[in-house]
């Protein structure tokens, strides 16, 4: 049987440190920072990277995918309503039609294909990294994010005097789901007003999310469930077509903004 190469502990550590530092340094400045690696953020990132843009997704968890691993009620089948199957086809996600216009897929298969497609397209990730605040310029333009290691939040206050760092980009996308964490930071500063997401109404919600996906503040685009939180739109429960398509729309709008910046 072939032996493993004679590589020692120091070589492995050095490879990790060097590669991490190289990539982090490169992505301290990017075209677009996406906060949140759920379905909408991954889809937006994938399409932007496919179009040749430099994209960093900041995700507070170790794992990517947000709520896309599980459909609802801890059951790992995800649903998509027509016309969302176009994206499932594009990503090579198997599904079956359970009724007219309603498709069901395996959560792990759907989510891992989406993550792989984002990686293949060239998206880079800062996982275990939490969005803390914004970088704002004199003219009010948002042009970056303040981030820190997620574990810092879990430590006792006395030992968490760890300052965050900032990263810059032309566009920031809020893809943090229900919590709309980036929008909330602007709201804290009195710059926008969020309405909070509305009660469930599947038939209305998904079309409204697509219609409202877009720029909410100079340099800030909102996608996915955070769109509902921004505009008080009805929620859609465990169905994901609008998350994927909203990510697509966010990428298109970002490309237009980048072209005119
Ligand atoms: C870094 C953060 C931070 C932070 C959050 O919740 P998500 O899956 O979001 P969407 O909008 O892509 O998809 C929503 C969908 O999963 C869902 O919940 C639906 C359709 N619900 C309908 C309903 O009626 O309830 O992903 C958001 C991601 C997660 O991975 C978070 O960990 C991450 O954002 N995140 N990352 N810094 N401060 N806050």
Keywords for this entry:
single chain; FAD/NAD(P)-binding domain; binds ligand 48H; 261 residues; 8-stranded mixed β-sheet; 9 helices; globular; 13 strands; 39% helix
Mean pLDDT: 97
- Looking at the overall shape, the CATH architecture is 3-Layer(bba) Sandwich
Q: Helical content, roughly?
A: 25-40%
Order of SSEs: HEHEEHEEHEEEHEHEHEEHEH
Number of strand segments: 13
**What small molecules are bound in this structure?**
ligand 48H
- How many domains is the backbone divided into? 1
Query: How would the global form be characterised?
Result: globular
- Regions with little confidence, pLDDT below 50 for 5+ residues: none
In percent terms, what proportion of residues is strand? Answer: 25-35%
The first-to-last residue Cα distance is: 57 Å
* Count of individual helical segments: 9
Radius of gyration: 19 Å
Describe this structure as you would to a colleague:
The mean pLDDT is 97. Helix content is 39%, strand content 26%. Helix 2 (39-50) crosses helix 9 (241-260). It is built from nine helices and 13 strands. The longest helix is centred in the C-terminal third of the chain and has 20 residues, at 241-260. The chain is globular, with a radius of gyration of 19 Å. The chain is of the alpha/beta class and 261 residues long. The protein starts with 8 loop residues before the first helix and ends with a helix. It has one domain: FAD/NAD(P)-binding domain. Residues 35-41, 58-61, 66-68, 130-131, 175-177, 179, 181, 200, 224-226, 235-237, 240, 243 line the site of ligand 48H.
């Amino acid at each position: 049987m072939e032996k493993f190469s004679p590589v020692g502990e120091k070589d492995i550590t050095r490879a990790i440190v060097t590669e991490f530092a190289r990539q982090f340094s490169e992505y301290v400045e990017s075209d677009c920072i996406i906060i949140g690696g759920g379905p909408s953020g991954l889809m937006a990132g994938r399409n932007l990277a496919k179009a040749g843009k430099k994209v960093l997704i900041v995700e507070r968890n170790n794992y990517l995918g947000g709520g896309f691993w599980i459909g609802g009620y801890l059951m790992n089948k995800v649903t998509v309503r027509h016309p969302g199957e176009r994206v499932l086809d594009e990503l090579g996600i198997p599904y079956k039609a359970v009724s007219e216009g309603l498709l069901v897929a395996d959560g792990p298969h759907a989510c891992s294909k989406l993550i792989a497609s984002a990686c293949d397209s060239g998206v880079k990730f800062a996982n275990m990294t939490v969005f803390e605040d914004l970088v704002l310029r004199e003219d009010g333009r948002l042009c970056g994010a303040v981030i820190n290691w997620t574990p810092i939040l879990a430590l006792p206050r006395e030992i968490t005097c760890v300052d965050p760092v900032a990263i810059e980009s032309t566009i920031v996308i809020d893809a943090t789901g229900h919590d709309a964490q980036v929008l909330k930071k602007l709201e804290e500063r009195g710059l926008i007003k969020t309405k909070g997401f509305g009660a469930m109404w599947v038939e209305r919600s998904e079309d409204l999310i697509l219609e409202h996906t877009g720029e909410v503040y100079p340099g800030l685009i909102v996608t996915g469930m955070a769109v509902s939180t921004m505009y008080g739109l009805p929620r859609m429960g465990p169905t994901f077509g609008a998350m994927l398509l909203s990510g697509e729309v966010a990428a298109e709008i970002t490309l237009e903004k980048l072209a005119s910046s």
